Amino acid sequence: xxxxxxxxxxxxxxxxxxxxxxxxxxxxxxxxxxxxxxxxxxxxxxxxxxxxxxxxxxxxxxxxxxxxxxxxxxxxxxxxxxxxxxxxxxxxxxxxxxxxxxxxxxxxxxxxxxxxxxxxxxxxxxxxxxxxxxxxxxxxxxxxxxxxxxxxxxxxxxxxxxxxxxxxxxxxxxxxxxxxxxxxxxxxxxxxxxxxxxxxxxxxxxxxxxxxxxxxxxxxxxxxxxxxxxxxxxxxxxxxxxxxxxxxxxxxxxxxxxxxxxxxxxxxxxxxxxxxxxxxxxxx
Length: 284
Fold this sequence. Notes:
Elements: E1 2-5, H1 10-20, E2 28-32, H2 39-42, E3 47-50, E4 68-71, H3 80-94, E5 98-104, H4 115-128, E6 132-137, H5 142-145, H6 148-154, E7 156-159, H7 171-183, E8 190-194, H8 202-213, E9 218-221, H9 224-233, H10 238-252, H11 262-267, H12 274-282
Parallel strand pairs: 1-2, 1-4, 2-3, 4-5, 5-6, 6-8, 7-9
Domain NAD(P)-binding: 6-183
Pfam families: NAD_binding_10
InterPro entries: NAD(P)-bd_dom, NAD(P)-bd_dom_sf, NmrA-type_oxidoreductase
């Protein structure tokens, strides 16, 4: 049995759909916070289990001996270490065969703040003694294209990453990597640094928005404090805004433009080009 946690999230749903193209539904289980949100899969024969990262009591019995478990990293930044650790402990107690974790590009070498919880989670998995696979995902192109329409409307992409480049990939590309690792052989006790085939900077992203929309869009590079103030002014919580500004600093250092080609080799096809993701986001 393959168990996907966080399966009703954006990445998790793509992983489950990919698994159902490879294996019978009876070999797939989803461990989710709200089982009612997985009713569509239950109707297709997928086993649905309750598992809330923030409520360790729900994790007891969420896994079975011999299963392969995908731990999709939680979305609650600042709470992920205890939440993930609770999942690891439950998986170990159940005697799962392997724990696959979606971390962040760079692993122990990543210096940006957002990577700290991923490093701690990987350490907990290693300490558990469970067989593992680390999927160190780079940035999702959707992190940017989710705001594509707004950027076109304003005519500006704002950031503080300078000419720093990102080798992003589409969420579906990273989901395909998880499916390959969950269903394939030879992935035990390995870490994969996953990123897109081609890198780009925010000026090139703005140019792509302009080309696809037919409207002028420019990249405005600002100092980190001005970037922070703009994000907070737009309504983002100060803590989260600080994380985004810190990521831009990592982009300037080149930390999110590395290990190109590993992801495409794992999934057996090129990663999704930026232009395709922009076109999908704008419907152009």
